[in-house]
């Protein structure tokens, strides 16, 4: 029996290209969907444990019509503008799988997409798109995938598809909890490393670590109101572990600010602040970081 899945990848940047290569290696039919309609074919070289080369169809309307899975790997702030124009071309059975950092990007799209099975994923893999044709698997990690809506609950087989391609991927029926935990860690690390233009490891310095603790304290109040069972100690110790394990890395927000690109702050600290306001929680440290990043964006974009 042919168990290959027809997959279109919307936004083949670093993460999208990484999955494109591994999914094709595993035998699935992959089409890339980019911002511009030419060229109609794209060659990608994957640098990983084993280097490999891959040829993909690009912006193929028939492949989009026929895809079983649309894997959306644009940045959080690009989701709406990238996805809405494609919706009329999709079958209602097409599964939408969102893989980006931050939260809230699909909340406002619900009425447009809720007739599709919807999945969300979070990943700790590292990927770097060196140029148009080279993607580097910079760090091996894992991924979790789970349902966003009731139709998504019937699509657990997608975990197998992903797990056979780039393990390990687990199925998390409560993916919202995993997304909140990732967001909490991102709130503690990303804005500070972007504002101070430092590597993650520098957040362990005593003068700056106090800020990390203040952020965690505010974030934890919001987590409690969102019914995410994580003690403040667990949050702080996870953040500390991530800072240690990634001490030599630059966070994605650090890189976005360094290269004067728009950041995902609205879907990380911005989302936290929205939920804090909803619950009547004051979060002055996070608000100050949010404003500083917005100011940096305003000065450079
Ligand atoms: N890279 C990592 O190691 C990593 C790890 C974990 C999580 N993440 C998260 O994964 C998400 C993607 O990150 P990334 O590093 O892969 O970003 P990226 O390299 O910037 O990839 C995004 C891609 O989407 C494309 N795009 C934007 N708008 C589009 C549109 N309207 N139609 C088609 N394509 C469009 C971009 O094209 P252009 O080049 O034309 O703008 C780019 O190729 C982010 O939320 C990030 O935080 C990344």
From TrEMBL:
GO terms for molecular function: 2-dehydropantoate 2-reductase activity; NADP binding. It comes from the Bacteria. The keyword Zinc-finger does not apply. GO terms for biological process: pantothenate biosynthetic process. The keyword Glycoprotein does not apply. Its EC number is 1.1.1.169. InterPro entries: 6-PGluconate_DH-like_C_sf, 6PGD_dom2, ApbA, Ketopantoate_reductase, KPA_reductase, KPR_N, NAD(P)-bd_dom_sf. Residues 178-297 form the Ketopantoate reductase C-terminal domain. It catalyses: (R)-pantoate + NADP(+) = 2-dehydropantoate + NADPH + H(+). SUPFAM superfamilies: 6-phosphogluconate dehydrogenase C-terminal domain-like (SSF48179), NAD(P)-binding Rossmann-fold domains (SSF51735). It is an enzyme of class 1 (oxidoreductase). Pathway: Cofactor biosynthesis; (R)-pantothenate biosynthesis; (R)-pantoate from 3-methyl-2-oxobutanoate: step 2/2. It holds the Pfam family ApbA_C. Residues 7-149 form the Ketopantoate reductase N-terminal domain. One of its GO terms (cellular component) is cytoplasm. Catalyzes the NADPH-dependent reduction of ketopantoate into pantoic acid. Belongs to the ketopantoate reductase family. PANTHER family: 2-DEHYDROPANTOATE 2-REDUCTASE (PTHR43765:SF2), 2-DEHYDROPANTOATE 2-REDUCTASE-RELATED (PTHR43765). This is 2-dehydropantoate 2-reductase. The lineage of its organism: Bacteria, Pseudomonadati, Pseudomonadota, Gammaproteobacteria, Vibrionales.
């Amino acid at each position: 029996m042919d168990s290959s899945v027809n997959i279109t990848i919307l936004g083949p940047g670093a993460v999208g290209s990484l999955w494109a290569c591994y999914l094709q290696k595993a035998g699935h039919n992959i089409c890339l969907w980019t911002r511009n309609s030419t060229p109609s074919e794209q060659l990608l070289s994957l640098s990983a444990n084993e280097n490999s080369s891959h040829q993909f169809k690009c912006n193929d309307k028939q492949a989009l019509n026929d895809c079983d899975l649309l894997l959306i790997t644009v940045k959080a702030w690009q989701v709406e503008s990238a996805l809405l124009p494609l919706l009329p071309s999709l079958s209602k059975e097409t599964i939408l799988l969102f893989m980006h950092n931050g939260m809230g990007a699909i909340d406002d799209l619900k009425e447009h997409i809720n007739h599709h099975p919807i999945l969300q994923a979070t990943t700790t893999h590292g990927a770097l798109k060196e140029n148009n044709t080279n993607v580097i698997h910079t760090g091996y990690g894992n991924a979790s995938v789970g349902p966003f809506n009731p139709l998504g609950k019937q699509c657990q087989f997608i975990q197998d598809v992903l797990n056979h391609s780039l393990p390990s991927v687990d199925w998390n029926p409560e993916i919202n909890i995993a997304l909140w935990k990732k967001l909490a860690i991102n709130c503690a690390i990303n804005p500070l490393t972007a504002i101070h233009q430092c590597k993650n490891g520098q957040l362990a310095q005593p003068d700056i670590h106090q800020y990390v603790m203040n952020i965690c304290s505010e974030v934890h109040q919001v987590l409690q109101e969102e019914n995410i069972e994580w003690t403040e100690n667990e949050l702080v110790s996870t953040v500390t572990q991530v800072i240690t394990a990634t001490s030599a890395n630059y966070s994605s927000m650090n890189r976005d600010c360094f290269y004067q690109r728009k950041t995902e702050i609205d879907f990380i600290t911005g989302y936290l602040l929205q939920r804090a306001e909803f619950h009547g929680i004051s979060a002055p440290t996070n608000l100050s970081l949010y404003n500083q990043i917005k100011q940096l964006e305003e000065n450079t974009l």
